[in-house]
Amino acid sequence: MGKGKSHDPKDGKRKEKAKMHLKRNIGYVDGVSFIIGSIVGAGIFVSPTGVLKHSLLNIGVALTIWTASGLVSLMGSLCYAELGTALPFSGGEYSHIKRGLGSLPAFVFIWTSTFTKPASNAARALLFAEYATQPFYGICPAPEVLKKCLALAVLWSLGILNGCSVKMAAWVQTVFTLLKMMALSVIAIGGIVLVGGRKESLARFEDAFSSEIPNASQIAEAFFQGLYAYGGWWSLNYMAEMKNPSRNIPLTVMTAVPAVIVFYLLVNISYLTVLTPKEIVSSVAVAVTWADRVIPSVAWIIPLSVAVSIFGALNSSMFTLGRLSYAGSQSGHLPVLISMLNVHSCTPAPAMIFSTTIASIFIIPSDLITLTNYFGFSAWLMIGLTCASLIVLRYREPHLHRPYKVFLPVPFVMVAMSSFLVLAPIVWSPNLQYVYAFLFMLGSLIVYLPFIHFKLHFAFLDKITCHLQLLLEVSPADESTESKCE
Question: Is the pLDDT of residue 3 over 60?
Fold first, then answer.
């Protein structure tokens, strides 16, 4: 008998599994958990006061701004859903900006994100350590060394977890998202019950717009605070591991973001049923004050819930940051080692080590984190550039397969909104640090021109890469699979 080629479909599946690329292990429920986990951090528990304060304690205006901020975030997430379904690659905004606007704007994005996003993770880890250690010290402050050690331990635990198993990271995210949503449900349901039983609470909402109406600049500042609370809705586009992205990306966005809007409104209403607007604004931790009034016997649940919420948000942020570094390396904007995958788990282990190391550096002299506060405008600058990329691709690549298409005026509104949010804080409160932040972003040209544009390369780096590749047991990803739209 002749030895012909085998056409067994099982052989094809085995070959596909043998390819080195990110495996599509994230489903619909995991995606919803990642988005909600990214948006809901400590803010809604601790200090949802910015919107109310800048609304001049006007309850009606404050709740309207919470709703409007959520709707703007939903509009942005729908823009990202179109890009994510048409170009389901890892890297999120980076990949879309590179495709729509070119290599240089994408490099500026990854240059800035390489420092600001790990600094944000370091701040989250330190905040988690603060809430996790404080119950053991009562009214006394916990030692700084202890908090930093715990923050480093949490960072590296999550870094190793995300570098070893996507399924395990997704499972952890789902569990912690459920826990934080249960805590929010306790607050929300408690508020609904109390509204029905307190006449003074009902009267407060009947005269919701009776207080002083804020002016345009105050409304804009309150709006800025509200949008900050919804930050993280863009996280799903970093996940190249999403199963059936053309279906699941729009579906998860349309589930997660409206759910957060509803919960944020219910939680704020609950706070306002128990506390007066003045008490909310003056409270250091609003949820803790609420718990002391409503459930004093189990008030310890709230600080625990804050720690759980921060942990979940940190896990989600570290997951997406690893994918950003991985995508940047695949495009040649970061060292080639970072785009390699572990041969056993097909996870971007070097990318996770890289981003976790930078975050650890920020933890040790934690004063560095305060410097990154002045890069807040850069997040909305990149959102604006991403939505501009969508508009450019609509006209430049009209035949690109788009399983989901957003209503075209929406990205134009998002570009205008982003321009306002970039310029407003600089115009209203000009500060020399904004100049430093802008110069830092321009400093990316010093690296881009020799190493990316002119492709300057040092031979000794290849030897270092080879040794690290053997040490970490990683291999280059299969190039063809990143461009596939499954």
Answer: no
Instruction: Find how far residue 191's CA is from the centre of its chain.
Output: 28
Residues 425 and 434: their CA atoms lie apart, in Å, by 10
Mean pLDDT of 202-212: 71
The DSSP line for 399-456 is TS--SS---THHHHHHHHHHHHHHHHHHHHS--HHHHHHHHHHHTHHHHIIIIIIS--
Of these ranges, 66-70, 133-137, 272-276, the one predicted with the greatest mean pLDDT is: 66-70
pLDDT band at 486 (very low <50, low <70, confident <90, very high): very low
pLDDT score of 242 more than 60: yes
Residue pair 375/131 in contact by the 8 Å Cβ criterion: no
Instruction: Kindly report the number of other CB atoms within 10 A of residue 6's CB atom.
Output: 9
Three-state secondary structure call for residue 85 = helix
Q: Is 215 buried (19+), middle (13-18) or exposed (0-12) by CB count in 10 A?
A: exposed
Q: Which residues fall within 8 angstroms of residue 445, CB to CB, at 6 or more apart?
A: none
Torsion of CA 179, 184, 189, 190, to 10 degrees: 110
pLDDT higher at 449 or 199: 449
Band (411; pLDDT cuts 50, 70, 90): very high
Are 232 and 316 spatial neighbours (Cβ–Cβ below 8 Å)? yes
pLDDT tens-digit map of 329-342: 999 999 999 999 98
DSSP state of 22: -
Rounded (10°) CA dihedral 58, 64, 69, 70: 130
CA distance 65 to 58: 11
- Other CB atoms within 10 A of residue 399 CB: 5
Per-state percent for the chain, helix, strand, coil, to nearest 5: 75, 0, 25
Q: Alpha carbon of 326 to those of 151, 260, 332: distances in Å?
A: 24, 29, 10
Q: For the residues 281-299, what does the mean pLDDT come to?
A: 84
CA distance 143 to 397: 57
Name the helix (H) or strand (E) containing 475. strand 474-476
Q: Cα-flanking dihedrals φ and ψ of residue 205, to 5°? A: -85, -25
Q: CA torsion angle for 356, 92, 98, 73 (degrees, to 10)? A: -120
DSSP symbol at 88: -
Q: What would the two tokens of residue 426 be?
A: 């600089």
The DSSP output letter for 342 is E
Mean pLDDT of the chain: 85
Which residues is 476 bridged to in the sheet? Answer: 340
Question: What are 341's strand-pairing partners?
Answer: 475
- Residue 266: what are its φ and ψ, rounded to 5°? -65, -40
pTM for the model: 0.87
Residue 15 has pLDDT above 60, yes or no: no
